[in-house]
Amino acid sequence: MTFAGQTAWITGASSGIGEALAKALAGQGARVVLSGRNTGELERVAGACGEALVLPFEATDYAALPALAERAWGWRDGIDFLVNNAGISQRSLAVDTEFGVYERIIGVDLLAPIALTQAVLPRMAARGSGRLAFISSIAGKVGVPLRSAYCAAKFGLAGYADSVRAETGHLGIQVHAIYPGSIRTDVSRNALTADGTRRGASDSAIDNGIDPDEAASDMLARMLAGEREIIVARGFETELGEARRTPEALFDRIAAMMAAGYAERMKSEAESH
Prior knowledge:
This protein is an alpha/beta fold.
């Protein structure tokens, strides 16, 4: 199985994991919609992706998302696969961190992917097919130092993904929550410090991390295999992720509850009062 012939929309597609996913999908014969803030870099990635639409936007411009979703959906008769990858990290102690940093990181890493998914999800549900991927983090499973805002956002993103999966599995929509460890990207350089400024320096763990192309290939293969919770890490980071892995049987049980009419029963109970 491949993604050949499908249309995939990737956010944060100008570098790192997003760029690697875009190129890997294009290599399998997918059409790609590339989003991010840096139009020049998106154009560069598009040049390596065959059939591509560059659709730049600011992640937290929530009001603009419905119109952008309309354009992306109409480009090639729908979106088969939405990859919520755009994000920003943090390197600061909670005790030192200004509240605005929390607002910025949670806006980009949690509210923005929710807003974009909400703009696409009803169309996928009406069509009866689609795939959603949410790039969380090992820091979305275990609270780690210097990343309190990032952990809060990534934990929240995982919860949203799991809930949407439970609600839409019987509608033909597949949902994947992905938990990368250290991937060799600029995530640490671009991280926010306590006052909201860019850190500008990398970490040794990131510099020695998994190659983005390798990570993207692993993610896509495991999504095609139907894995719902995908941990892409090495060493101790793998241990952290696996220690908090959700049992597959629990995913099945929750999905079955929804398919058996849970939402309808809740609505009926509310209307009866």
